[in-house]
Amino acid sequence: MEWKQYRGSLIGGLVVISLFAILIYNNVDWRACLEPEAEGFVLSCVAENTSAWYARYGVVMRQATVSGLLIGGVYGLVALGLTMIFGVLEIINFAHGALMTVGLYITFILFDTFGIDPYLGLFITVPLLFFIGLIVYRVVIHPARDAPHHNQLLLTLGLTLLIENLLLMVFTATPRAIRLDYGRGETNILGLFVMQFPIRIWRAVITFDKLLAFLGALVVTAILYTIIQKTDLGKAIRATAQERDGAALVGINTDWINMITFGIGTACVGAAAALVLPFRPADPTAGNLFNITAFIIVVLGGMGNAIGALLGGLIIGLTQELTGIFFPGSPDLIGVFVIFILVLLFRPQGLLGQAA
Prior knowledge:
Layout: H1 7-25, H2 42-89, H3 96-114, H4 118-141, H5 149-171, E1 185-189, E2 193-197, E3 199-201, E4 204-206, H6 208-230, H7 232-242, H8 244-249, H9 254-276, H10 287-301, H11 306-326, H12 333-346
Antiparallel strand pairs: 1-2, 3-4
Helix pairs in contact: 2-6, 2-9, 2-10, 2-11, 3-4, 3-5, 3-9, 3-10, 4-9, 6-7, 6-9, 7-9, 10-11, 10-12, 11-12
């Protein structure tokens, strides 16, 4: 028999193990559920103890859920740029996170030196990162287009180290943060209405900067999705991704499409950088976490799938925040890597990907 026939048993076992692990980590009296005189079934006893735990930690869990979904939108935007690059160029771009760090420092300079609001600076950071992406593609990626995949991977990894060390030389390792003069208390929204921040929903707190980052990520994702689906450029990008030789035969300049796609993917991290700087300081390695997370999201959502990138971002953001609740003291990425392994085992093509 193939191992796939045991999927149901494996999943059931993992659920049971995870449930008891959560109970153990949070000092729930699970041993009483296994005693012969315990009332009812074992599962009802476990459910009773779990309900008691939720009554105690429910507010914290709701806050983690809200925070995870908000940051998950930004993760989805970063992963969208990465999945576009992979879908068209078939290159694993390890420099994606380092280019986001460049965007963080550009946004910081615009705010600190020129007094430009980071959300307005988005209209400067995105075009700058787009042109930086074009230059990186033409100078670094294009000469290695026909090289083996492992050579391309090492090339982008080397580019990451170069960018990080250049940023370290120029800005030092001191984190650079900004503080906005608005977003606390009564805040005027575009002159249309006034809202009180932070917002409290079901006793969970939503801050202005994280809410705006989430909404901004959704807007940028929607714009990019519309471009890909509705415009001639988008059709050319999709044609190149699906059948490069066929696209070239009908007159599409595939090399130009490759360059534009790499620029758009880099612009995505520029937008993400401008949106997260108000609550995430910039340092030379700030993009590494987003880089690792984006790769997992791309695998989770499906290689080259834009909607899958957004869905995967929300799932990973939620998982990362809830890990700290269920397993206090553990690194947040533990739960993310568990999801990653499970996807590779049971659905390697991703949630919305198609099997080869």
